Structure formats: structure tokens, C-alpha cells
Amino acid sequence: MSGSATLTLTALAGVPNVTDGDNLVAIILSALEASALTLQTGDVVVLAQKIVSKSEGRTVDLATIEPSDRARELAAVSDKDPRVVELILRESTEVLRSRPGAIIVAHRLGFVCANAGIDQSNVGAGGDDRVLLLPKDPDASSAAIRRELKRRTGADVAVLVIDSIGRAWRNGTIGTAIGLSGLPGLLDLRTRPDLFGRPLQTSELGLADELASAASLIMGQAAEGRPIVLARGVPYDRREGTMRELIRPKEMDLFR
Predict the structure, then answer these.
(1) Disulfide: which of 54, 86, 138, 184 matches 161 by Cβ 3.0-4.6 Å?
(2) Domain 8-56+135-250 is in which class?
(3) Mean pLDDT of 225-247
(4) Can you give the pTM of this predicted structure?
(5) Rounded to whole angstroms, how far apart are CA atoms 48 and 45?
(6) What integer pLDDT is reported at residue 125 of this predicted model?
(7) Measured between alpha carbons, how far is 203 from 31 in angstroms, rounded to an integer?
(8) Which phi and psi (to 5°) does residue 219 adopt?
């Protein structure tokens, strides 16, 4: 019989409203201090996509967007602002489905999501005239933050950027990894023995997504203001990983 295992998730205190150009590493370290915590090698720092996008200047003023004919056509079908639809098209490689309220697309980063991940909630000043795009390269953002955290603290941690994304076969959104550095996205358990010594044949664990979903529970989705979570005790094999290893190839995707 195996021993006990513990995973702790702590939403950090004292995180300010992030704006364009803010130093996320400085914010993380200040929040750790406010929470009476210090980083340890093996920890995972989980960041809400919104603060990464805001710090990287991914807020767009809709007054600057001129919708194309295609955007206007799709806006009529989806009952959405044509300017938002224009941004959805720019952020996507393929439109898969549309209905009033939602446009399902293949995002330029590779995954399938609604409305290209473009959000109008908790964007900040400007109200309905400002929207927030996903980071240009969340893996690169994660890696840069990880490097700087190690330089400033000496701790070799992993960094995860997450967003709330729906699933084709179930209702409700869950926290999902869109960028990572320092941990596997996909954990290959094949050949490992089960309880009776039989080697696993097909088991691959979406480690980064499981952790993203767990962290999302205490981040919250509305006005909680808890966009940084420290995960300690995550059982994972140390290696570099990327978000793309979690994306099912199109030819194997039975939902597309």
C-alpha cells in the first residue's frame, strides 16, 4: 500500500490590478511576501491568463477595429459585435461552428475554443469598448517568468498560464493550460505497473490541465481578485514541456 500524498494550492494575497507593462515577476514576489511564503524548487506558479495578457498589452480598443465583410456576415449569425468578430477571425485559423452567442474556432495557438478566447470581463477601464486577447505566445511568457523567478530566488519552479475553456462533450468551462514551462503538459504513464503489476497500455495524463482546473477553483471567475496560485506537492516528473503536447492532432479529433 502506498503512503499518503499532499497537494496544497494557495491563492496569493495582495495582487494588484495588472496593467500594460507591469512586471509580473515583481508582482508574484510581492504577493508571495504578502502571503508569508517563499518559493521552493518543484513548486508550480499558476497564473490567470488575464494578468499575463494585460501585462503584455493585449487589450484592444474596439474603436480602432474596422470589421471586414466576413466579420459582418458572421456577426449576423452569432449576434455579436462585428468588431469583436473581426478580432476573433484575426486570432483564429479556422471557424468550426457558430450560433447566437458563440463562435467556435481553431485558435492560432492550436487549440479549439469559443470566441478565440477574447474576453470583455475584468478588462478594466473602457467597459464594453475594450476587449482582451490571449497572450501571443503563452509558452514563451511562462518560460520568461520562470527564468526570472529562478534568477531572483534560486528556486527552479514551473510556471503555468491558464484560462477557462469549454469542452465539446460536457457543459461548463474548466481551467485549462494554455502555456507552460518546467513541467510536462502530458504525462506518459504507459508501461508503468497498475496495482496488480500489469503495465498500463494507453494511459496519458493531461497533467497541466488537471493542475489548471484545480487552481482555477480557488482563483474564481468573477470579482475574487485571486489570479496567482502557488501549487506545492504536484506529483510530476521534471522535464520541459509545452502547451502543444496537449493538443490532439486534427486527424485524430473526432469532434471536428
Answers:
(1) 138
(2) alpha beta
(3) 89
(4) 0.90
(5) 10
(6) 57
(7) 37
(8) -65, -45
Q: Per this entry, what is the length of the chain?
A: 256
φ, ψ at 92 (rounded to 5°) = -120, 160
- How far is Cα 59 from Cα 177, in angstroms, rounded to an integer? 21
Least confident of 47-51, 90-94, 154-158, 217-221: 217-221
What pLDDT score does 209 carry?
94
Q: What is the pLDDT of residue 253?
A: 80
Residue 193 has what DSSP assignment? B
Cβ atoms within 10 Å, residue 69 = 8
C-alpha span between 211 and 177 (Å, rounded): 8
Q: What is the CATH number of domain 60-131?
A: 3.90.1660.10
**What ranges do the domains of the chain cover?**
8-56+135-250, 60-131
Strand order in the sheet with 158-167: 8-11, 228-232, 44-48, 158-167, 170-181
Amino acid at 32: L
